[in-house]
Protein: Diacylglycerol kinase family lipid kinase
Amino acid sequence: MKLYFIVNPSAKNGKCKKIWNKIERMLQQQHICYRVVFTQKQGDGAKLAQQIAEQTNEPIAFIAVGGDGTIHEVMNGVAMYSHVTTGYMPAGTGNDFARGIQIPIKWSEALSYMLSSVKDGHVDVYDIGTFKGAKQGVFVNNVGCGFDAHISRKVNASKWKHILNRLYLGKFVYMFYLLKGLFTYEPTAVRVTVDQKQYTFSNAWLVTVANHPYYGGGMKIAPFAQSNDQQFDVIVVNDVSRLKLLALFVTVFWGGHIKMKEVHTFRGKYIHICSNTSLPLHADGEQIGEGEITISVNKQVRVFR
Ligand SMILES: Nc1ncnc2c1ncn2[C@@H]1O[C@H](COP(=O)(O)OP(=O)(O)OP(=O)(O)O)[C@@H](O)[C@H]1O
Structure:
């Protein structure tokens, strides 16, 4: 099986390039035969992976090296090809996909794990979802509407982000917009349809559709979600005071928020979310525009585990 690494050198504020150099040394020491391609800008992960997959019908292994945005892109490039199996080396900021497929978060441990999975052909099936809205594609972790998408949009548009990222202080930009959003974001009425049942929320802060428990770098937003049950968990935070929302952002680290009366959970295969206002949206932390969105369980893909 041909082994390709698709590396996003900019992930983890540029540290991924250094991690890759170490990975490469280990691959060479172990005489592993591989090819590597580097992404140069947003969108390259999908394009490069698809171009390589289209060149052959022979089995190929792609290992995405980077963060959740990188595996999101690679999966968008190759999810439709049955001769492709995908793996992941966590070298980004959040790395929730690694938690989702239960592989080590530390890159050196993840490398040994991935290499033995590729060698032994240890493959599992994994649900992925399709989203259709202002943009369309597939996601591996979650799709979010509302407050969280608003914060990540603000962070990405911030001129401070690149400066502070270079100083390894990127988290402060996120904290700043999170706190600002807690006091300024206006919750909105949303209608959520889960497998033909309709629910209305008058003051929704966020709606998250999750394929596995983890979100935002280890928060357990959907503690009971399973990535191979052909269903998604839907979490709605509605009618919560700003102070309690702050508490929610603490309890979510161990999944305790689920007990709050303001947190509503559902499970289903087909989810439609709409609002009278333009809800900001993200898929796996990548901006996918705003407005209404339809999400469905797409199919199962093969991943190295
Ligand atoms: N060479 C590049 N230069 C700048 N951006 C890139 C490059 N290659 C890919 N990208 C974009 O970088 C973004 C962030 O990548 P990724 O999500 O993998 O890292 P991260 O944000 O550090 O990690 P995480 O999403 O796990 O928090 C993605 O939107 C991706 O499209």
